[in-house]
Specification:
Chain lengths: 263, 355
């Protein structure tokens, strides 16, 4: 084995350790029987999961996260898909500028967005409401949908759409019967990303959500300041499992569509 | 020609300053099989796309059945289009692909099945109805595309290099199949290709395109035997193009002087002034090799190269400074490079072309 090969393996292991170590570190603590979030773990129990699902604050936080997450998934997926479809037409004036504009929320600091949204939402009567949080999360979730759906649409052969038109399908029918089904894998992964983004969002939630819209992420954030309970680790465990599930869905969808396209 | 069914009336297509098709006049009769032949970038596909409705003409009118259609969207033109890439719907079965145009026309489900079965039988794919396109070979996919473009009995079928991606044997089989369908169903077919042999075998008429203009239009026979321009003579088949000047003309044709003090008799061609620069096209298969000199149109040559092609020999000859390609019978196989011979040909096979 050459020196370079050894170096490559060492580097790969180091990089993966760096990325995954925090996750591995927190997971055993989810099953601790102690009331403290630290090592060594004296014994194992599921008491913190029980706490998560029975204690009112945690249960509400989980439900809030799911409600808001689903709302964001629907809203962001619809908006992001429409934007991607609209900007697919290259002859549109300023399409490059618009394209960049749709991606801006990805790079603008969330703090800046949060301040602006808070001011705006108070005026509009959306502050401290579920709708407000859903709107706020959707703003940063739309770019993920937009990017995914744009990529999927790019993969749709325009000649197939032309074929549909030549066979008598109006533009709307062509879109519904041909373009949309072929772009579905991109829309699904966009939706999964939108859900994950909402689940994960803390900063915007801090700015626009009231006490009734405490999400799981925000609850974890405040808990870690107030009392460092292992319930955080249990919540983190749920997050990780959820994320792996979502990633699996995306991979399955991509794999299936790749299989379908393979000639 | 009787009343034209399809007419391009002074059609121009330009992208900005770049002219793809210029002042095109083209009439096509009902039931005719017309090939648009030309190198890539000659505008032939653009013409097809204007007819299908995917590209609006910049100027001029496209008329089908006495109605202007150039403002009509593609889905209301009732034309079957077969694309080079087949363009099947990958998420639908073969049967659903073929049923699609019927569904769009509101054909009841029960009739649809019957028509789809018949169309698939026509292209010998009756057993493949429930497969997805990705489970078929290229040739089978192309036949599905054909069935899909024909099942709704369109007035016109447009084909954009439909056989380009197939291997030679399959391509020749499909050429015969398409020709057969054309005759059986009385279809009007516009067929775009860059393959001259495909155009020659399939078409009623061929329009040869170069740089957005028709160089020549005519039957395969006219195009091959009587090319009017240098481009057509060169593009269709192989030919020898001999540049010279008219020396004299008489009732039997004219005498063209070639460089190196050679003279050849050309049977046809009148109205050309003495001294005018002309180009003579002479097909390689029309050149005979002899050992003794004839009277007219026989040139002493040196054999430069002789390549075995199975049914013939392809020879490169040097006629005192003029290079000639000849297709010779295999019995000349013992003529080695360097040996001398006499190349002769009929005046009727020499054909004047414009530059």
């Amino acid at each position: 084995m050459s020196m370079l090969r050894v170096l490559k393996i060492v580097f790969a292991v180091a990089a993966m350790t760096f990325l995954l170590a925090p996750l591995v570190a927190i997971l055993p603590l989810a099953f601790t029987s102690s009331v403290f979030l630290n090592y060594p773990v004296p014994g194992y129990s599921t008491r913190w999961f029980a706490e998560l699902f029975t204690a009112d604050v945690w249960r509400r936080a989980i439900i809030n996260s799911l409600v808001i997450g689903l709302g964001v998934t629907v809203l962001a997926t619809v908006l992001g898909t429409l934007a991607a479809v609209g900007l697919r037409e290259r002859r549109l004036p300023f399409s490059g500028v618009l394209r960049t504009a749709f991606l801006l929320p990805m790079v603008v600091p969330a703090v800046v967005l949060g301040v602006g949204m808070q001011l705006l939402f108070v005026r509009m009567g959306l502050a401290n409401s579920y709708l407000g949080v859903i709107f706020a999360h959707s703003v940063i979730a739309v770019p993920f949908v937009f990017v995914n759906v744009s990529a999927a649409l790019q993969g749709v052969d325009t000649r197939v759409e032309r074929a549909a038109a030549s066979l008598g399908a109006s533009p709307i029918t062509t879109f519904r019967r041909v373009t949309l089904p072929l772009a579905t894998p991109g829309i699904v992964s966009g939706a999964v990303f939108a859900f994950a983004t909402s689940l994960d969002e803390v900063i915007l939630t801090l700015f626009v959500a009231g006490p009734n819209q405490r999400t799981l992420a925000r609850q974890m954030f405040s808990t870690i300041r107030e009392n460092i309970s292992p319930a955080i680790a249990a919540a983190a465990f749920l997050f990780i499992v959820g994320t792996i599930l979502a990633a699996t869905i995306v991979m399955l969808v991509r794999w299936k569509s790749a299989q379908r396209r393979a000639a | 020609m009787t009343q034209p069914y399809i007419r391009f009336d002074k059609v121009t297509k330009a992208y900005g300053d770049f002219i793809v098709v210029e002042d095109l006049y083209l009439d096509i009769a009902k039931g005719e099989f017309v090939s648009l032949l030309g190198p890539s970038g000659s505008g032939k596909t653009t013409i097809l796309m204007m007819l299908a409705g995917f590209e609006p003409p910049t100027r001029g009118a496209v008329i089908v059945d006495e109605k202007r259609i150039d403002q009509l969207p593609p889905h209301r033109r009732n034309m079957g289009v077969v694309f080079q890439s087949y363009a099947l719907f990958p998420h639908m079965t073969v049967a659903d692909n073929v049923a699609f145009p019927l569904e769009m026309r509101g054909v009841p489900k029960a009739n649809r099945k019957q028509l789809v079965d018949r169309a698939l039988d026509m292209v010998q794919l009756g057993t493949m109805a429930d497969r997805k396109p990705s489970q078929l070979s290229g040739g089978q996919q192309q036949r599905v595309a054909l069935a899909r473009a024909l099942v709704f009995e369109p007035a016109v079928v447009l084909m954009d290099e439909p056989l380009g991606a197939l291997d030679k044997q399959l391509r020749e089989q499909m050429q015969l199949d398409i020709r057969d369908l054309h005759k059986r169903l009385g279809l009007t077919i516009i067929f775009v290709t860059h393959d001259q042999s495909e155009a020659l075998t399939m078409s009623d008429r061929i329009a040869v395109f170069n740089k957005g203009r028709i160089e020549q239009i005519g039957t395969p026979n006219e195009i091959y035997d009587h090319p009017t321009t240098r481009f057509v003579a060169d593009f269709i088949g192989e030919t020898n193009l001999l540049d010279g000047a008219i020396e004299t003309s008489d009732a039997n044709g004219l005498i063209v002087a070639l460089p190196g003090n050679k003279r050849i008799r050309v049977a046809a061609g009148s109205g050309e002034a003495t001294g005018a620069a002309v180009t003579v096209s002479l097909r390689p298969e029309k050149i005979r090799l002899n050992s003794d000199a004839g009277s007219e149109n026989s040139l002493p040559v040196t054999i430069l190269d002789s390549v075995y092609h199975g049914d013939h020999l392809r020879m490169v000859l040097d006629a005192q400074g003029t290079r000639l390609i000849a297709k010779a019978d295999r019995r000349f196989g013992d003529l080695q490079p360097g040996s001398k011979a006499i190349a002769s040909f009929d005046a009727a096979d020499c054909w004047l072309v414009r530059s």
